[in-house]
Amino acid sequence: MADKPYGSGYFGKWVFDENGLPAYSYTCNQLADERAKTFTNPKLRNPVEHFHQVGNDRVVAIASNFGYVQVRQDEGAPKLLNDYDPENFQYAGGIGYLVDGNEILCTFYDGDPEFKRTFGVGYFRKSVSSKKYDVDQVIFAPFGDDPLVISQVTVVNKSDVRANLRWVEYWGYQPYHLSFRYTIYAAMKKDLGHVVSLRRAFSKRFEQNVRPVEDRGIVIKSRFKGFGLSDKIKWFGLKLLAATLAKKQLGGPIKFRSKEIRLEDLNPPPVFLVSLDGPVQGLLTDARLFFGRGGVSRPEALVRETVPKDAGRAESCAMILEREFSLNPHERRTLYFAYGYLPEGYDLDYLIKKYERSLENTWSSSTAKWKENRIRFICDEPWVDRELIWHNYYLRSGLTYDTFFKEHIVSQGSVYQYIIGFQGAARDPLQHALPFIFTEPRITKEVIRYTLKEVQPTGEIPYAITGFGAIMPSIFKPSDLPLWLLWATSEYVLATRDLDFLNEKIRTYPGPRDGSKEESVHNLLYLTYKYLVGTIGTGKHGILRLSNGDWNDGVVVEYVPDKEYDEVVKHGESVLNSAMAAYVLAKYAEVLEMAGSPKISSEVKKFAEEQRKAVASQWNERWVRRAWLSERLGWVGDDRMWLEPQPWAIISGAVEGEQLGVLFKNIEGLMRRPSPIGAMLLSESIKGGKSMPGVATNGGIWHSINGTLVWALAKIDGVSAWDEWRKNTLAAHAEAYPEIWYGIWSGPDTYNSILAKHPGATYFDESRTGEKAYGLGGLNWTDFPIMNMHVHAWPLYSLTKLLGIEFTAEGISIKPNIPKGEYSFESPLFGFKKSAEGYTGWYNPISKSRLKIRIHLPEEDLEKASSVLINGVECKPRFEDGNLIEVEGETSGAKGLEWAVVFKGV
Known about the structure:
Low-confidence stretches: 769-776
Number of helices: 25
Distance between the termini: 42 Å
CATH class of one domain: Mainly Beta
C-alpha cells in the first residue's frame, strides 16, 4: 500500500477534495474483482455491494458502489423511502441519464472503467464520460436539519458542435419500513432473509396519491389501506404466543402503553422530487413504463423523444423528471434537484426558495460547515486528523429525528437498525453522545433527554425502542443501562457546568394507566440510581447483580447452560458493573454536590466506594474476575482474562499499587500486543460457545471496550495508550486487512480477532451458506457491516482521555500522556497545545464561572517553566506532588478560561 496514503486499503485511496476535506476515491470494479465479495445472506445484501453514509442532522442516506442512493426517514417510524427492488422496477434513486438522441450516459455503475465514484464528507460523487460528454453528479445532504438531499448534475459538452440534450433524474418511491414486526415473523421461521419479502408486502398495503408541483416536480402522499384479515390473525397469534410459549425467544408479552405507539408509520409524510433551478419538460411516475425491458442501465422510455408527461397512479411508483437544454461546444451547465420528504413543520415552497437562492454555493458552503465544531488533533502523523474529520462527519451525519420522543437521536446503526429494525441498546446512543460534549453539547443533551423519556415508573430503562415509541420485545434484560445514563449526564454537566439542565422538566414514557407526566432531570436520574442499587442491587459478594447480561448481552444468554439460566439470573453478579459504578457514581455524586444535594451526594459516594472495594476484592493476582454466576457455576474469569472489567477497575482505582503493573503486563501480553487492530475481549476463546472462536463476544474486538482501555492505559503508560488508540482506527484496520472493505471508511461494532479463522472480518458463519446463514435465523454482521457509530464515536472520545481530561465540580484536571514532542488538540469546549515554547490551552464551558485548572506535567517540563499565565496575565500557581500545577481564573472571552505554561528563553 506504499503508493497510497496510509490507511487506504485495497478498494481505492484517501484524497482531499476541492473543499479541503478527506474523501475516499473508490476505484474497485466490484463486478469483476473477486476481492469485492463479502459473505452475506443474499436476500439481505448483494455480496459485492459496498456503501457509504450521506447525511445531516435529520436524514441518513445509503450510497451504493452501484451508484444508487437510499434515503432513510425516521419521523413516524424508521423507513427507507426508496427500496432497491429490481424485480419490481425499483432502483432506489439518485440515478441520472444524459440523452442526446444517439447515446445514453447513465450514473448507475455497470463496470465502465471511466466511471468514477467518491465517498465524501456529506456527499456521494459519480462521474462518467464518453467521447463527447462529461457528467458529474454529486448527491449531498445539506448541512443542518432539512429533510432532503440535493442532486447536483454538471454536464460538459467536450465536442466541437452544439448539443441538444436531455437529463432525466430518477428517484424511486417504494418505502421499505424497518419494522420489527416482520423481524419477529422471520425469526420465528428461522430465516431472517424472509424479512425483506414481508416488509415489501407491507409496503403494498399503501396506496399513493401523486400530484405534480406546477412545472417543478412531483409530490407523493401515501395512505394506509389497513391490515388484511390474515395479518391481524397472525399478529394476534404471535402476541398470544409471546405471552406464553415464546418468552425465551421474545422476552415476554408484546404490548403498547398508549394508542399512539405502533411498530410502523401508518401516516408517512409526503415525499417529493423537484427541479430547483428551472422548469421540467417531462415527468413520469410509472417505473414499469419507464424502465421496461431495458432495465436500469438503458430504460425503454429513453429511446423515445421525451419522457411522457404523466403524474397518475402507477403499480410501480417512481419520481422521474426530464430537463431539456443545449450546450455550445465546450460549454458546461449545472442542474439541481432535491429529493426529500415533508414532516410536520416543513413546507415545500419554503425549501425550494431557500435553496434556489444560492444553488451555486450550496454544496461548498455545506461542506465548509463540516470543518467547524469538531475535534482536531495535529501531530507528526497527518492521517490522524484526516480520520478525526471523517469520524466527526460520520457520527453527526448518523443523526435522525424521532417524532415520538421529539428529540434527535444517534442510532447505533448497522445490522441493529437496518436489518433487525431497532434503536438500541439504550447504552449505545449515550456512548455516541459523549464526543458531542466537546463539539455540539446540545446534541448530547438531546440524546440524554431521549433516554430520560424512556425511563419507566420503576426507574428501569428499556433495552431498545422500535417503530414509533414501542418498547422492543427482547430476551435481554441488561443490568448496566442506568450506569450509562448516569455517566453521560454527569460527564455532560461537569464538562459544560450546565446545572440548569438538572431542573429541566422531562415528559416521561406513557405509563399503562395514567399516561405520561413531567419530572425533572434531577429526579429521573435519582430514580434510575435507586433502581440500580435497589431493584438490581448487589449479591452475596457486594457486587452489582448481573441479571441476564450487562454490557455483554451474551454473557449469560450465550455461555450459561439452559438448566442453570434461572439460577444465574437470580444470583449472578457483574464485576464489570461494579467497576464501572465505582467511577460513574463518584462523578454523579460530584454533580449532586454541585446541584446542592449534599445528603444524596454522600449516599451515592458511599455506595461508589463500596463498589470500588468490592471490585478490589476480586483481584486474583493476575486480573480482576469477570462475574459470579451461582453456587454451582462459581466465578467466571479465573482461567482466562475477560477484558471488559479491567479498564474500569483501573479508571475507578479499584486496582492500584503493584497490582497495576501486573495487570498492565497481562493486558499487554495476552490481549493487546498480539492483535494488530486493538485488544481482544478474551485472552483465549471459550470452547463450545454459541459464537465461534475469536468472533463477537467469544474473543472478538470491540470499540466500546477498547475505548475505555485507551483511557485506562493513559493512566499507566502513554506509549501503550497511544498505540492502542492507533490500533483501533480505520487506518490501522485498512493497513492490517486491506482487502476487507468494511473497516476502511466505516465499520461494525465488532471485528474478528486473531483467534478467529477470518481475522479482521466481522461476525458470520462460513459453515452455513445462503438463506440459512448463522445468527438470528440468517443474520450475519456482514449483511450491513458499516455505519455503526461505535467505530466513529470512540476514537473521538478516547482521544480526550489521552490528554487525561477529568471534569470535576471545581473545574478540570489535565494529565496528558501522549508520547509526542509537539501536538495540538482543539475543540469548541477545550483546547491543549504542547510545543517547544511550552503548554497552552483553554476551557470554555457553557456556564461562565470561576474555575480551578489542575495541570499534571512531567517534572522535566516544569523545570523549564518560567511563568504561568491565566487569561494572558502572569499568576502565582500552586505546586503539588512535584508535577501538579493548580491555577484559578474566571471564564471570559471567546475561549473561556485561557492558560499557558511558558518555558524559559521564550
